[in-house]
Write a structure and sequence with these properties.
The complex is a heterodimer of chains A (about 130) and B (about 130).
Chain A lengths: L6 H6 L9 H25 L6 H9 L1 H29 L3 H31 L1
Helix pairs in contact in A: 2-4, 3-5, 4-5
Chain B lengths: L20 H32 L1 H12 L1 H28 L6 H30 L1
Classes of the chains: A mainly alpha (about 130), B mainly alpha (about 130).
Chain lengths: ~130, ~130
């Protein structure tokens, strides 16, 4: 017998952590999205330095800008959540780890929701 | 099981383990990731302030225009450039490319040099846009 693993375990492909490659893959997918979105955002943001609030709102409200900005915010907080989770898993243990993991999840979710609602308010009121 | 007192990663670097560009850049990737995550909440604040308008946006602009605000903005932008470039290096590794030691060193130095140049370019654009 060359493999001691049960055929069912092999078929499920989730490994000993029962988590599979989901986390790893999601981090790469969000990384690839950000590799395209981050340069766009950098140029977009630099163009708005020192601009008054009406100019900023008009720029954000443009359909493609609102869409790309929403995508950027979602990918950013998703990627941050996944990355911070790994850092905490590596260096912090015990109850502090649990507390920090919850804090990271809630904070990143809230950051994304606040950003999306703000983009929506600007885009739909323009 | 008894746990022997031994240096754990990353705290073995320095007294027990000579730092190399590969390990230092790996730690920097994490540190910059942490900084950008904090910057993400600054971005949420910017969007929120813009959606509220008026005084909220003025307060945001005053905060970002102050010296600590500018310093934070510079740090996060430099972190974003580094994490972006080194992230592409990581994606190539994930695809199984560039794993030999000379390649890892060459890509590492390339990322450092490009990070400095791109950050400088970004701020040249940013400061030129104001003038």
């Amino acid at each position: 017998m060359s493999d001691l693993r049960h055929p069912l375990a092999q078929a499920k492909g989730l490994g000993s952590a029962k988590d599979g490659t989901g986390h790893w893959w999601a981090q790469r997918v969000s990384a690839i999205a950000l590799a395209f979105l981050a340069p766009w955002f950098a140029i977009f943001a630099v163009g708005l330095i020192g601009a008054d609030v009406d100019t900023v709102r008009a720029a954000i409200a443009r359909p493609w800008c609102a869409a790309l900005l929403s995508a950027f915010v979602l990918a950013l907080f998703w990627h941050a959540r996944l990355g911070l989770q790994v850092v905490v898993e590596d260096y912090i243990h015990g109850w502090k780890e649990l507390a920090l993991q919850l804090l990271i999840k809630f904070a990143c979710a809230l950051g994304a929701i606040v950003s999306l609602l703000a983009i929506g308010r600007i885009a739909f009121s323009a | 099981m008894a746990t022997p007192k031994r240096p754990l990663s990353p705290f073995m670097i320095g007294p027990y383990y000579r730092p190399q560009i590969t390990s230092m850049m790996s730690i920097t990737h994490r540190l910059t990731g942490l900084l950008i995550a904090l910057g993400g909440f600054g971005l949420a604040w910017w969007l929120l302030a813009a959606s509220l308008g008026g005084e909220s946006y003025a307060a945001f602009q005053a905060c970002m225009g102050s010296l600590p605000g500018k310093a934070a903005l510079f740090l996060v932008s430099a972190a974003l450039v580094y994490h972006f470039l080194n992230g592409i290096r990581h994606l190539f590794w994930d695809a199984g490319r560039g794993f030999t030691l000379p390649q890892a060193y060459a890509s590492g130095y390339t990322v450092i040099v490009l990070s400095v140049l791109l950050t400088a370019g970004l701020w040249w654009l940013a400061l030129g846009g104001v003038a």
